[in-house]
Design brief:
It is built from six helices and eight strands; from the N terminus they run H-H-H-H-E-E-E-E-E-E-H-E-E-H. With 288 residues, it is α+β, with helices and mostly antiparallel strands. It folds into three domains: 3-117, no CATH class; 161-205; 212-287, 2-Layer Sandwich (Alpha-Beta Plaits).
Length: 288
């Protein structure tokens, strides 16, 4: 009779810590696995986007990961690859932090349930702390999302020269030194500046070149340039915007080579559509 209560008490005392260790271990394992999965997924998406659009000269239509734009000056291939990996690492790290928070919150809820602990007691007793954290956390969430979009959309990266209106009498201008979870560090010749990521939502990047594409069109240079400029913004090419003048030169076999700078990288179907429509329009002009 006395043995049964003792066994029950021992089982309860052992099962409690054991359950806690199992849940904590499972949360740690899930966190590590999620980091590997997220990094591999982002790496695969970035590679697929790069292959679909070409190295620095295209994009994967519909993809949320933007192909990195070329920087001013001739970049070596090793520098381009280093910056591509740097961007992947930063984005995967930021998403991994968010997933880790979700995993540990779920683990805490499971522990409360298994240990028959009422979480409402803790929430009510620390309600004022939670309210303060919620109010202060709004800005942190905004900074976090802004920083994530910096990497996903390639707004700027380490080593880029940027100009931003941060509320000073003159726009801020400097070199990006670090992009963190919640803040960005910028250097100028005199000092180091720290800004919350949301303060740099509108940025002029002086280091990014406009995406350039070479189109080869059958026809005379003057006709090809005139027709091509008129095609921008037409049906099926509404997102195509030419920047600056078109660089026209004579190619081989009667072709005209035209270098165009656009507001975003042209996908391969858009390049093919531009060339096909331009050649049809030139053919119509010549038949008159």
């Amino acid at each position: 009779m006395l043995l049964e209560p003792l066994v029950s008490l021992f089982t309860t005392a052992v099962s409690g810590p054991f359950v806690v260790l199992v849940v904590i271990g499972a949360a740690m394992l899930a966190t590590q696995i999620s980091r590997l999965v997220i990094r591999r997924a982002i790496k695969q998406i970035a590679r697929r986007n790069l292959i679909a659009g070409g190295a620095g000269d295209g994009g994967w239509p519909g993809s949320w990961w933007r192909t990195r734009l070329r920087r001013v000056g001739d970049e070596r291939n090793d520098v381009i690859e280093h910056r591509r990996r740097q961007r992947i690492d930063a984005a995967s790290r930021m998403i991994s932090h968010l997933v880790s928070i979700v995993i540990w919150i779920a683990a805490a809820i499971v522990l409360f349930h298994l240990l028959d602990v009422d979480p409402a007691f803790f929430l009510s007793s620390a309600g004022f702390i939670g309210a303060g954290l919620a109010i202060g956390g709004q800005h942190k969430v905004n900074d976090y999302l802004s920083g994530l979009l910096v990497h996903v959309e390639d707004r700027y990266g380490i080593g880029d020269e940027i100009v931003a209106d941060v509320g000073w009498t003159e726009p801020m201008r400097g070199i990006v030194d670090h992009v963190g979870l919640f803040s960005t560090r910028v250097r100028d010749p005199r000092s180091t500046m720290h800004f919350p990521n949301h303060a740099l939502a509108s940025v002029r990047n002086l280091s990014q070149e406009a995406p350039a594409t070479t189109l080869r069109i059958s026809g005379r240079p003057d006709e090809a340039a005139s027709v091509l400029r008129g095609l921008a913004g037409t049906d099926g090419l509404t997102d195509v915007v030419f920047l600056g003048d078109l660089a026209v030169r004579e190619g081989f076999d009667g072709e005209t080579e035209i270098d165009v700078a656009t507001s975003r990288p042209l996908a391969e179907p858009e390049r093919d559509r531009l060339v096909a429509r331009a050649e049809r329009a030139i053919g119509g002009l010549q038949s008159r």
